[in-house]
Every structure is written in structure tokens, then in C-alpha cells.
Amino acid sequence: MHGFEAALLIPIISILMPIFIVGIVMYFRAKDRAEVQKTIRMAIEKGQPLPPEYLDSLQKSGATIGKMKTPVNDIRSGLILMAVALGLVVMDYVGNDYTFETLSGIAAIPGFIGVALLIMGIVGLNNQKKS
Fold it and tell me: Which residue in 104, 106, 113 sits closest to 78, CA to CA?
């Protein structure tokens, strides 16, 4: 009974950990954007002019607006998701006496999303080359 609980915790933790990490990254990005907007708002309220170089640097850093989605970003994201899926499959295979269990099925979700992003990135690159 005690071994069953430990075996159940491993896939749960491996699924929740990426969600937790992504949540932390999103929290700090939102916090940074809020700070930048607060600074700009205070400068405008006090009548301080914002230098064009500062606004350009904000746009280039992506602090005020979301970064542009490019086909290269799709390919990168797709490859990362496929690597995560492969890692989960290997962990499942090695951890279950070299047989595939439930975790391999769960790994198919990020794997197929990764394949879709990879295809979208390749199609996007081909469309950019044509235009």
C-alpha cells in the first residue's frame, strides 16, 4: 500500500511541476508589466515627457506589448514540448520495468501539441519565404 502511494505521486508531481513553473513565470511577467505601466502612468500624471528612446526600448523588450509570434517561436515551442513528452515516456519506460504505462499516454498530449506547433512553424516559414 505504501509503495502504491509513492508510485502515484511521481506522475502527479511530474504533471504539476511544469504547470507550477509556467505559473511562476507568468506571475513575474505580469508583475513586471504592471510595474512598467505604473511607472509610465506616474510619469504622465506628473507631466514628465517620456523620451522616444525609452518607448522604443519598451517595445523592443516586449515589456508593454506581447512578443510577436513568429514561426521560429512555434518551432522552438514545438520542439520543447516534444522533448518534454519524450522525457515523460522515457521516465515511464524506465520506471516501470521497461514497459509503457499510463504516463506514456499522458505524455502524448504535450507530444502531439508539439508536433502541431512544429508543423505550424514549418508552414509559417514556408509562407514567409513565398511572400
Answer: 113
Give CA–CA dist 32/55, Å, rounded.
Answer: 15
Cell numbers for 74: 512555434
**CA dist., res. 84 & res. 35, Å (int):** 33
State how far the alpha carbon of 105 is from the alpha carbons of 5, 28, 70, 92, 95, in Å: 20, 32, 30, 10, 15
pLDDT in tens, 75-99: 999 999 999 999 999 998 988 888 8
**pTM value > 0.70:** no
Measured N-to-C along each axis, helices 71-95 and 102-130 cross at an angle, to the nearest 10 degrees, of 160
Please name the amino acid found at residue 80: I
- Residue 79 makes CB contacts below 8 A (sequence gap 6+) with 114, 118
> What is the distance between the alpha carbons of residues 9 and 92, in angstroms, rounded to a whole number?
13
In this predicted structure, what is the pLDDT of residue 65? 54
